[in-house]
Amino acid sequence: MRMYDVILKKRNGGVLSREELRFFIEGYTNGSIPDYQASALMMAIYYQGMTKEETYELTMAMAESGEMLELSAIRGVKVDKHSTGGVGDKTSLALAPLVAACGVPVAKMSGRGLGHTGGTIDKLESFPGFSTQLTAEEFVENVNSIGIAIMGQTAQLAPADKKLYALRDVTATVDQLSLIASSIMSKKLASGADAIVLDVKTGSGAFMKKEEDAFTLAKAMGEIGASAGRKMAAVVTDMDQPLGNAVGNALEVREAIDTLQGRGPKDFTELVLTLGSQMLVLGGICSSALEAADKLKQAIENGSGLRKLAEFVERQGGASRAVYEPELLPKAAIIKEIKAPCAGFVSKIICDEIGSCCMMLGGGRETKESKIDLGVGFVLHKKVGDYAKQGESLATMYANDEAGLAEVENRFLAAYRFSDEKPEASKLIKGILVF
Ligand code: URA
């Protein structure tokens, strides 16, 4: 087989076979197929698309390009959750312990991530000493004994995707639906969970700006998982404004703790309960989402979710005291209110601009090598639909460096839009798909 012919076939609108896709993934992973040919194929796929079967075969080839995690030693149905990401998305921090407290084992691999804030692992490192460097044995042992473990994504997990995603990033071929679906699902399938709940975001702070595209992506990912024999559900959710109020690593940890104490923001709490319900149902613990939501609410009310977070942090070497005394989490030195320039209802918040402001404060990574400042970020006091008087605080900004603060503040204010009329509330949960 020649790579030239594979590229030509796709360029001309052909359907690639399992053998052709495997030939490509194997050759690209071992270095025998060069970047320029892989780039050409990615661009051909970008324009010609892929069928459902091709997308599945590409996913499986990438998932099997490295280590497939074997979790059969963990008792019960292992349920994972994946979010396509957005601003203020700290969902796993509250969701994973809450679900574990209800009896569903959570064995999760998470990443660090580039962008507005760190990934789940960076956020968890707000607990001094916390480590995600677990061996496979420790990972299994922790889930069996306390019901939860989160480990860092290893280099052996779907290495083909790692290489290909980096290539797509610099060849303008990231935003192709089949490529996104196969990239995400290859990592999820290689991480070994029996059931997966997807949180597919839509809106100005999401990959999928249009709701219709988010549903198409949710369906594509759900179908791949189901074809691979996993139980799947996907929830399409709003990311047209930041999730909850906190944006920034340690600030988000604090908000997750508040949520486990029943004092979290309404939207964030609703999301945790919705995703958690799907996880309990797929995990076989509850027979309906309604019953599951009640169980999760009880775990908030009786404190078992919060205790599970502390147990989990402690088990992975972190200072669990900070769960009960969040003032021990990293803090910024400069605290400044950002005030409303006029009176009115907040009609829009350009979501990814708030993320970029957090990045400017040092809360996110520009390159893989950048160091994250865990203490910086924002706590929003006004969100879409809220009324602000002129001069009232829209948000509190947490920073560690005076330089550039005025620029960040101006950019933050430019992301807010006001109107005289109260805007219509947009729904947080756009839809739930079960496969
Ligand atoms: N996240 C991924 O892991 N892959 C993509 O292609 C897009 C988002």
Describe the structure.
The two termini are 36 Å apart. The protein has a four-stranded mixed beta sheet with strand order 1-4-5-13, sandwiched between helices. It has a four-stranded antiparallel beta sheet with strand order 6-9-11-7, sandwiched between helices. The longest helix is centred in the middle third of the chain and has 17 residues, at 211-227. The protein is built from 17 helices and 13 strands. The mean pLDDT is 95. With 435 residues, the chain is α/β, with parallel strands linked by helices. The radius of gyration is 22 Å and the shape is globular. Helix content is 45%, strand content 16%.
Quick overview of this protein structure:
With 435 residues, this protein is of the alpha/beta class. It has helices at residues 3-11, 18-30, 35-48, 52-63, 91-101, 120-124, 136-146, 159-169, 177-190, 211-227, 249-260, 266-282, 289-301, 304-315, 321-324, 351-360, 405-414; strands at 79-83, 106-110, 148-152, 195-202, 231-238, 246-247, 334-339, 344-349, 377-380, 387-388, 393-399, 416-419, 429-434.
